[in-house]
Amino acid sequence: MTTAIIIYICINIFAIFNIMLYGARPAKSLSWILIVLILPFIGALLYLVFGINRRRFKFFTLKQTTKRKLYDINHQQQRSKNTDIEFKSKAEKKLATLVGNSSKFYATDGNDVEVLNDGENTFDTIFEELEKAEKFIHLQYYIFEEGEILDKFYDLFSKKVEQGVEVRIIYDAIGSFSWKKKSINKFKDLGVQVFPTMPLHYGSFLFTLNYRNHRKIIVIDGKVGFTGGVNVTDKYIKPISPLGIWDDIHVRLKGPAVDSLHRVFIKDYFFASNNELLLKDKYLPESEKAGDKMIQIVSSGPDSNHPAIMQQYIEMINLAEDYIYISNPYFIPNSAMLEAIRIAALSDVKIKLLVPSKLDSWLAKYSMFSYFQELLFVGVEIYLQNDNFLHSKLIIMDGKISSIGSGNFDHRSFEHNFETNALIFDESITDQLCTDFINGCDTCEKLEFEKYKNRPLKRKLMEGMARFFSPLL
């Protein structure tokens, strides 16, 4: 018993010392200290898995993270910084400069963009483009789940491999946990190269569990790209989920921006396969103009020197003059994000927030709802989608700039996940997204401050408890 107590005290001292020395934010650090003290042994273990700031504490830096940073030093992420781009405003230039400096991908013009608003439309467009592939198809998804959509990929790939098209797939080991080995082997038997990202191996389990690859990317022949929030699952086309059909948004890209998107995939594929570097002319053809849209790829992850996704969102909120519209399923802002929203709202910037009323995690749901009272108090309009599950990750600024991608408004996307967004500098596309957003809000439940403030005490306690444990999200 005495030995156990000594071990317990030593573990707690180590954890608390680490929290105080390397904690990024006081409020979050205090939550972790309380979790460590309240939950004997388990609290320290939770902190070890979910809480350690590996950017600042080098002892706990993942070996793969170190190697990925060396990759960035040895392999320039983009051919060159285009200095000929003319931005329409200082706000656009400032945002693009920030993203370029933090994620090392710069704005490109001459792109074509198609916004895909629902699962049926998204997959119809994807398969239409895949049918045209002549050289290679590269896919990366957080979730591969067995069903009708995955079967269509299998049938198409069987035909494409016979035509001599190279097919490569990388998937997240946790997000695609239900993808059976037998099914994976079927793809491999076709000649498809299939690898998991951040697999859970003995000895590295505790250090990789919390770091997931949440990206959704397709690149075809280096000329056509897809990214956004849609995964490979029938939940987008059938009501097989308790939450209903998943509503999401995706984009098809053509033009120079595809090169940036492909370099994100190539880096991830190199570390997943551990043996193939695709930085070759065959896979990175000279970019050709395909339209008149300016696009910038935003890439962020635990290997980044800066939390680029979080910085992108905060900068868009800071630069807004008229309005900010946000659609996101996991709106759990950190203190910096929350303060940016407060300042914008108090500066008479109209802010609309569209979120789902039902989530796949009660902890995430009540943690998200715990922020609503203070947001409503400063004038933020909050709308709840009650029918299908809202899974879109969209932010719109002043009808001029919009962002579609995989990044949520939570600590996990900002610090722990590998994420990718497409930043669109185009008024016509953004205007249509605004129209669709407002029409969506019109069919949703709008929260009112006085009514929400008087919600039941039990509900407030659940929200407070969930917010306390939000560092685990």
Number of strands: 17
Q: How are the strands of the largest sheet arranged? A: 4-3-2-5-6-8-1-9-16-15-14-10-11-12-17
Whole-number total of structural domains: 3
**Global structural class:** alpha/beta
Note the beta-strand portion: 15-25%
* Principal-axes shape call: globular
Largest sheet entry: 15 strands, mixed
Write the CATH fold name of the largest domain. Endonuclease, Chain A
Q: In whole angstroms, how far apart are the ends?
A: 33 Å
Average per-residue pLDDT, rounded, comes to: 88
Quaternary? single chain
SS element count, helices: 18
Give start-end ranges of low-pLDDT stretches.
Answer: none
- Rg calculated over all Cα atoms: 22 Å
- Percent helix, as a range, is 40-55%
The CATH class of the largest domain is Alpha Beta
CATH evolutionary superfamily of the largest domain: Endonuclease Chain A
| Architecture (CATH level 2) name of the largest domain | 2-Layer Sandwich
Question: Topology, please?
Answer:
Layout: H1 2-22, H2 26-38, H3 42-51, H4 63-74, H5 90-103, E1 108-116, H6 119-130, E2 136-141, H7 148-162, E3 166-172, H8 181-190, E4 193-197, H9 205-208, E5 217-220, E6 224-228, E7 246-247, E8 250-254, H10 257-273, E9 293-300, H11 308-319, E10 323-327, H12 335-346, E11 350-356, H13 362-369, H14 372-377, E12 381-385, E13 389-390, E14 394-397, E15 401-405, H15 411-416, E16 419-425, H16 427-442, E17 445-446, H17 449-453, H18 457-468
Parallel strand pairs: 2-3, 3-4, 7-13, 10-11, 11-12
Antiparallel strand pairs: 1-8, 1-9, 2-5, 5-6, 6-8, 9-16, 10-14, 12-17, 14-15, 15-16
